[in-house]
Amino acid sequence: MRVHVVSDVHGNSTDLARAGDGADALICLGDLVLFLDYADHSRGIFPELFGVENADRIVALRTARRFADARELARSLWHGMDRDAAIEAAVRKQYAELFGVFPAPTYATYGNVDIPRLWPEFAREGTTVLDGERAEIGGLVFGFVGGGLPSPMHTPYEVSEEEYAAKVAALGDVDVLCSHIPPDVPELCYDTVARRFERGSAALLDAIRATRPRYALFGHVHQPLARRMRIGGTECVNVGHFASTGTPWVLEW
C-alpha cells in the first residue's frame, strides 16, 4: 500500500494534479488557499486586490512581528470594500481549481487558512473530508484533525484549545495521526525563515504519548527547525511545504 501526503498546497494546482500519481490514495492536510505568497509577493488573493507594493509592506511588518501595524494597514486597505465578499469570491475560484484536480480517493482535512463551510460545494465524489474523524486506509486507521489554534495572524479556521482537544480526543487510538498543525514541540514548531514559533498543539502531543500511533503527520510550519523526530514509538513528520516543493511525502506499508 502506498499513500502520498501533502500539506500547505497554497494554490499549487499544477503539482497537486500529479501528487497522487503512483499512489493508492492521496492525503491532504490543508491550507489549500493562497492568500499571500511570502516568497513571491505577486501571488495570492492579497496582491490581486491591493497590488504587490502593499503586499511587500504587509510581509515586512509581519516578518518584523509588528502584527498590530500589519492589521492596521490591512484595515486601511479594506476600508470601503466588502471584505468578506471579495475574499470568498477569490477563495471559491481557487477551490474550484484545486478540488478539481484531486485524484480519487483523496482524504482531506482543513488548514488554518481554509474556509470549511465552502468545502462541501467543491469536494467531488472520491474526496472524503474529515475533521475529528477516522478513516481506514489499507488496513490502517487514520485520524484527522483540521484547523489551527488562535494566533496573532487571526486566520480563518482557528479554534479554541478546548475545541481542538475535543477533536483529538474523539479519534481514540489510531495508527496514523494526521493534523494540519504539529504537536507542541519547539523543534517542530519553529520556522527558521520566518524566525518565529508557530502554534503547536499540546493535545496532539498528549495523544501521541498516550496512544503511541505509528506516525504523526502534519504541515503548517513551512521551514521547520526539525522536519521529523521520534516521540516514544511515534515517528513525527512534517510532510513539507507542498506549495514550494511540489513533492508529496510517501508512506508505504
TrEMBL record:
Q: Which Pfam families match?
A: Metallophos
- InterPro entries attached to this UniProt entry: Calcineurin-like_PHP (IPR004843), Metallo-depent_PP-like (IPR029052), UPF0046_metallophosphoest (IPR051693)
SUPFAM superfamilies given for it? Metallo-dependent phosphatases (SSF56300)
Query: Which residue ranges run through the membrane?
Result: none
- Where is the Calcineurin-like phosphoesterase domain positioned along the sequence? 1-224
Entries under PANTHER family matching the protein: CALCINEURIN-LIKE PHOSPHOESTERASE DOMAIN-CONTAINING PROTEIN (PTHR12905:SF0), METALLOPHOSPHOESTERASE (PTHR12905)
Name of protein:
Metallophosphoesterase
Q: Which organism is it from?
A: Streptomyces hiroshimensis
Task: Kindly list the organism's lineage.
Answer: Bacteria, Bacillati, Actinomycetota, Actinomycetes, Kitasatosporales
